[in-house]
């Protein structure tokens, strides 16, 4: 399932824009590849992040994977609920399993991101 109303990075993060705030998470494809997520490391509120750079880490029963920021901006929220229940990323990656919220600095934050059809093509065999 690839929601049509989101934007995607080639590193398998999704972005939902609400006015001047971008919510970021990992895609269903990514969580499926990772397996059961057991630990999440995220940036702190107030941190400045650059598009394409590592901003966190997801540890699963299979591996440890970097989380990349799809946008440049300031972290305005982190999903604190994941500290005690990271498995929600597996069960609801596009909802309660979001990772961070950013205030993007780009004039057009979605310019370098993929729309749903392009992401679907990237992830299909």
From TrEMBL:
SUPFAM superfamilies: Single hybrid motif (SSF51230). NCBIfam families: gcvH, PRK01202.1. The glycine cleavage system catalyzes the degradation of glycine. The H protein shuttles the methylamine group of glycine from the P protein to the T protein. The modification N6-lipoyllysine is found at residue 62. Gene3D superfamilies: 2.40.50.100. The glycine cleavage system is composed of four proteins: P, T, L and H. It holds the Pfam family GCV_H. It comes from the Bacteria. Belongs to the GcvH family. Keywords: Lipoyl. This is Glycine cleavage system H protein. Binds 1 lipoyl cofactor covalently. One of its GO terms (biological process) is glycine decarboxylation via glycine cleavage system. One of its GO terms (cellular component) is glycine cleavage complex. InterPro entries: 2-oxoA_DH_lipoyl-BS, Biotin_lipoyl, GCV_H, GCV_H/Fam206, GCV_H_sub, Single_hybrid_motif. Its cofactor is (R)-lipoate. Residues 21-103 form the Lipoyl-binding domain.
């Amino acid at each position: 399932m690839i929601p049509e109303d989101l934007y995607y990075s080639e590193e398998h993060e999704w972005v939902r824009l609400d006015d001047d705030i971008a919510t970021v998470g990992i895609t269903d494809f990514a969580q499926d590849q990772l397996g059961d997520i057991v630990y999440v490391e995220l940036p702190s509120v107030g941190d400045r992040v650059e598009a394409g750079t590592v901003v966190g880490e997801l540890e699963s029963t299979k591996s440890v994977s970097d989380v990349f920021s799809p946008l440049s901006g300031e972290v305005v929220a982190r999903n604190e609920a994941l500290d005690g229940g990271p498995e929600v990323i597996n069960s609801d990656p596009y909802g309660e399993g979001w990772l961070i919220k950013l205030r993007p600095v780009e004039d057009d934050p979605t310019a370098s991101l993929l729309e749903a059809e392009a992401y679907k093509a990237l992830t299909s065999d």
